[in-house]
Amino acid sequence: MSTDATTDGDGEAQDGATIRLARHHLEEYLNALNALVDEAVIRITDTGLETRAVDPANVGMVGVDLSNTAFTENYAGEATFGINTRKLGALVERLDTAFLDLDYDAEFRKATIGCGPYTYTHATTNPDHVRNEPDIPDMDLSFKATVNSDQLREAVEWFDEFTTHIRMGYAPDDGEFWMKADERMSGNKIGTDDGEWRLDRSELGYVDRCGRADSQFSIDFLRDMARAIPEDRPVTIRIGEEFPMKLTYEVGWEETGANEGFAHGEVTFFLAPRIQSD
After folding, report:
1. For position 5, what pLDDT does the model report?
2. CATH number, domain at 218?
3. Theoretical Cys-Cys bridge with 100: which of 21, 49, 68, 115, CB 3.0 to 4.6 Å?
């Protein structure tokens, strides 16, 4: 690795970095980014990996953090660089290995992934040439609960068969978390492709807030987010009334025993609501 310093997106000098981590940790990291973007800035810091990105239409936002506890002992250096997330994601997914090495050469702006007989060198992008990293907002939303990722994905993919937008909410009086699609009237034509999905409060995981919520979202964006979440993973959903949705789930899971373990990181999705006109 070169020791000649270049500068990151903030104009600060960087010498490059080398880390080793589990392949599936990096795969989950890239899957989350690929739900919304094709390229993003990766920051390797003394605390771990982090990325913030927003899709070109400014509808969805993602933040991914992976703690340095996911790295092995050969962690060294800090770096900031832009990557083609889809290309790297596809390559990492195909590797049949437990661990891989990620090395960033600041002098030549190259990121190298190595494992076993494979070595791939990726020409990185200047962070200044990648879409600006967004600030993750802190919103006080009226409903917050956890659902299983498989349940969420199944419901969203069902709606995806017949509608482009869904309403999602919680009815405190009925104690139900719901999604529905209602086709609106257009002239003399009445839409018939309607559907509903409901979960009783007892069928949800941990419920932290149970205020009234009702917002409309794009099924395309929600589908891509849901597909990025690993199977059988608790997902925390936060929604309000015509406010953005916030989804969070853990990544970098490490098993320590039967049905036991801990996560090294977290993904946060934000999805802007679609305001329905009268």
Report:
1. 45
2. 3.70.10.10
3. 115
